[in-house]
């Protein structure tokens, strides 16, 4: 009998594991992505179970194509899948960008887990060699604005994405290893964490 291969772990923090999704995650992820509150600021709204199955299939395709995409967020304490966090390839205003994106089940809101999950994805982007990350956030999504700012991203501009007015928050690292650039310097950034 062949043992099922464990999904690849991308990153860990004290409270979270970021790992690749598998088809076996459907039962845990479907109710999260079907929740209208979780999907309030999504382009397409709540997912059906079929939408979630298609999402999980696309994850596998993107992992092969790009080497990254959206990853499962697992809460270590209860070993439960609680949402996703990861990196999306976006083309914005004619330029390729890497977006830090995330969604968590509402039971896990208000505990700093969104910030932690987004930070794991942000750091994965830099380990993959990207020099800049963005987050596209609707102006009314105050919680996500706070998450972006806590992770060092700063407001850059307003733009339109899928017919929605959004704000672009960005963070760049300079060509000098370990140095962040942009509107906040490394010392300010570390103090904010």
List keywords for this structure.
globular, 5 helices, alpha+beta, 193 residues, four-stranded antiparallel beta sheet, 30% helix, 33% strand, disordered C terminus, Aminopeptidase
In terms of DSSP E residues, the strand content is 25-35%
CATH superfamily: Gcn5-related N-acetyltransferase (GNAT)
Shape: globular
The largest sheet is:
5 strands, antiparallel
Q: If helices are DSSP runs of H or I spanning 4 or more residues, what is the number of helices? A: 5
The total domain count is 1
* Unreliably modeled segments: 181-193
Counting helices, strands and paired strands, the structural category is: alpha+beta
Order of helices and strands: EEHHEEEHEHEEEH
Quickly describe the structure.
This protein is of the alpha+beta class. It is built from 5 helices and 9 strands.
Give the helix/strand layout.
Elements: E1 9-12, E2 16-19, H1 26-34, H2 49-66, E3 70-75, E4 80-92, E5 95-104, H3 113-127, E6 132-137, H4 142-150, E7 154-161, E8 164-173, E9 180-181, H5 186-192
Antiparallel strand pairs: 1-2, 2-3, 3-4, 4-5, 6-8, 7-8, 8-9
Structure, explained:
This protein has 193 residues and is α+β, with helices and mostly antiparallel strands. It has one domain: Aminopeptidase (3-Layer(aba) Sandwich). The chain has helices spanning 26-34, 49-66, 113-127, 142-150, 186-192, and strands at residues 9-12, 16-19, 70-75, 80-92, 95-104, 132-137, 154-161, 164-173, 180-181. The strands form two sheets. The protein has a five-stranded antiparallel sheet with strand order 1-2-3-4-5, sandwiched between helices. Strands 6, 7, 8 and 9 form a four-stranded antiparallel sheet that branches. α1 crosses α2 (49-66). The chain is globular. Mean pLDDT is 90; it is low at 181-193.
């Amino acid at each position: 009998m062949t043992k099922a291969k464990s999904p690849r772990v991308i990153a860990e923090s004290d409270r979270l594991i970021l790992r690749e999704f598998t088809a076996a995650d459907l039962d845990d992820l479907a109710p999260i992505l079907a929740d209208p509150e979780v999907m309030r600021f999504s382009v397409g709204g709540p997912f059906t179970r079929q939408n979630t199955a298609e999402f999980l299939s696309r994850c596998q395709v993107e992992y092969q194509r790009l080497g990254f995409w959206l990853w499962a967020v697992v809460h270590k304490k209860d070993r439960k899948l609680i949402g996703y966090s990861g990196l999306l390839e976006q083309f914005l205003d004619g330029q390729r960008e890497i977006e830090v994106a995330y969604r968590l089940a509402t039971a896990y809101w208000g505990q700093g887990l969104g910030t932690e999950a987004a930070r794991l994805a942000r750091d994965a982007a830099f380990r993959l060699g990207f020099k800049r990350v963005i987050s596209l956030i609707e102006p009314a999504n105050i919680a996500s604005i706070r998450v972006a700012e806590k992770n060092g991203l700063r407001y850059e501009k307003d733009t339109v994405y899928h017919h929605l007015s959004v704000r672009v928050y960005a963070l760049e690292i300079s060509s000098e290893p370990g140095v962040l650039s942009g509107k906040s310097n490394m010392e300010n950034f570390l103090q904010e964490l």
